[in-house]
Amino acid sequence: MSDRAMIQIEKVSKFYGIYMALDDVSLSIGEGEFFSLLGPSGCGKTTLLRSIAGFETPTAGEIYIDGVPSLALPPNKRPTNMVFQSYAIFPHLDVAENVAYGLKRLKLSPEEEKKRVGDALDMVRLSGLGQRKAHELSGGQRQRVALARALVMRPKVLLLDEPLSALDKKLREEMQVELRTLQKAVGITFILVTHDQYEALALSDRIAVMFGGRIAQIASPKEIYQRPRTRKVADFLGGMNFLNAKVLGEQANAVSVDAARFGAVNLVKPQGFAAASGHVTVGIRPERLRLLWDDDRAPHELTGRIENRAYFGEVTHLTVGIDGLEQPLSMVETNNFGADDLPVGAEIRLAYDPDAFVLLAEDPPVSRV
Amino acid sequence: MTLFTQRLRFIPWLPVYVAVYFLFLYLPILLLPVFSFNNAATTTFPLAGFTTKWYGTLAGNSVMMEAAWNSLIVGISVSLLSTILGICAARAITRYRFRGQRAATGFIMAPLFLPEIIVAVSLLMIVLAMGVELSLFTVILGQTVFCVPYAMSVLVSGFEGFDRSLEEASYDLGETAIGTFRRVTLPVVAPAIVSSLLVTFTISLDEFILAFFLSGTEPTLPVYIWGQLRFAAKLPGVLALGTIMLVASILMLTLAEILRRRTERRTQMAHMLP
Lengths: 369, 274
Description:
The structure holds 2 protein chains of 2 kinds.
Chain A: E1 5-16, E2 19-30, E3 34-38, H1 45-53, E4 60-65, E5 68-69, E6 80-83, H2 95-100, H3 110-123, H4 139-151, E7 157-161, H5 169-186, E8 189-194, H6 197-203, E9 206-211, E10 214-219, H7 221-226, H8 231-237, E11 241-250, E12 254-258, E13 264-268, E14 279-284, E15 290-292, E16 301-311, E17 315-321, E18 329-334, E19 347-351, E20 358-360
Parallel strand pairs in A: 3-8, 3-9, 6-7, 7-8
Antiparallel strand pairs in A: 1-2, 1-4, 4-5, 9-10, 11-12, 11-14, 12-13, 14-20, 15-19, 16-17, 16-19, 17-18
Helix pairs in contact in A: 3-4
Chain B: H1 3-10, H2 13-36, H3 53-59, H4 62-95, H5 101-109, H6 116-129, H7 136-159, H8 164-172, H9 177-206, H10 209-214, H11 221-228, H12 235-270
Transmembrane segments (chain B): 12-35, 72-94, 106-130, 136-156, 188-215, 235-259
GO cellular component, one term (chain B): plasma membrane
Domain ABC transmembrane type-1 (chain B): 68-256
């Protein structure tokens, strides 16, 4: 991965009538980067991807692909290739013919074409299945054909539109590993559209979280999970306990707040922070709260009562009511120590780390017209 | 419950009903080929022995051959015209959402449900009012109006599942719009188009009312057959001709259905989820 920008999106907006699908989106994606566009359905992520491919024309702005302004170029003139959500395998062609589809226009010698198709099939581990018809393939195999058909064109950017959403969970996890390995092997820029936060976290170098046609935050998976900028980003990336806290004081890089029963907490101050009313929202992830057993002691403890319990196999989700807190807290506890046997109503103690709190900005109001 | 009613319950009523139904439907049609090979000028039992002479007389019948030629011209023209119009309509209906879509579909399909004789009379009035000579051309126009709904039904079922991303994938892989139509769109829906051609040709081949009203001095086969029925002696020949038309129709419709199912499989498979 180099620092050179492969895709530059500058102030791109897209209207459908008066409906605003994209609202002044700007971002830059590096060469060889695995970049994800993450958000709920209707957030504009697919519109943005299709704008890069050339299937949508933004109303305003410009998209540079490898430095070339590309909005005037049709899809067949862009150095991008796409893996469609439905895979779009040509039903009248076999696997090898599907993969060779785009090569036909390049007028390669038959040996060269055969070699490239063979290499592409090897790459997605479909060697020997070249003569299969599309309807003889499993979902995972169709996915691989779609990948090979796009990669064989040696695009500068590979666009993936929810490519794993049609697969069952186990296959999806296998394909995630494969996709990541493949991207490292070919070294080209991948842009993935997904609504699955785990997929985005597991695969990406960087993630852009989108809401209402806008980008809410762009960061590495770890940063976006641990330091979400706004309440919505925090919520979309996973479980989060939100608390209303009173600002006690502000320093250059830190804010100290009174987080109700959690006491005074020092928080990293985000850029451009301004507490309008002296109150802010802070959050702590459920897994950062830890159950204390028998003689366990921790520097920061709270007592509470189990209000609800849900068994998830390897972990148990607990809802714990704490006196003095408006909302009960969510916790995730591994089942190694018997959290799954705790009865509802049991009195428990929990430990927390004050450094695990994040300060969350208010989300801008969403307006799509 | 008496023993009698208990026994009644054991008679498999439903299969009996189905058997009677099919007998009623197909027995008369099966008699057609039987009598066409019967060595007698009358259609009565017992049969008088096997012969193919009635088929022989057809070959020498120049008026009949003329009518067959007319039917062929009309059939091919009608199937081409109605399929082309059907392709446009089916594509619009399956691909786009527009105001008045339901109404448009309804109006295209309406000739299916209108009394054919009324359609024929009104077409005849218009054709005469416009001062157009009755000919095979007017038959072609009339039957096309009548065949477009059939063409559209067959084509819509073929186009319905056509995944738009197939065309997008083709553009994305560097193909032009014309190339995409030639290499993706056409091959995927080709069986449906052939199926539509066969269905409309078959319908045109045995369509009588419109042809009778609009053909003027150039009869098609059904009109010719109608004319022959007045002569008892010609009946076996008509039966032989009818048998040929029957077999041809069944073959074409079977082929059409096979092709229609193939497109359906193709287009649906393309975006079938695992």
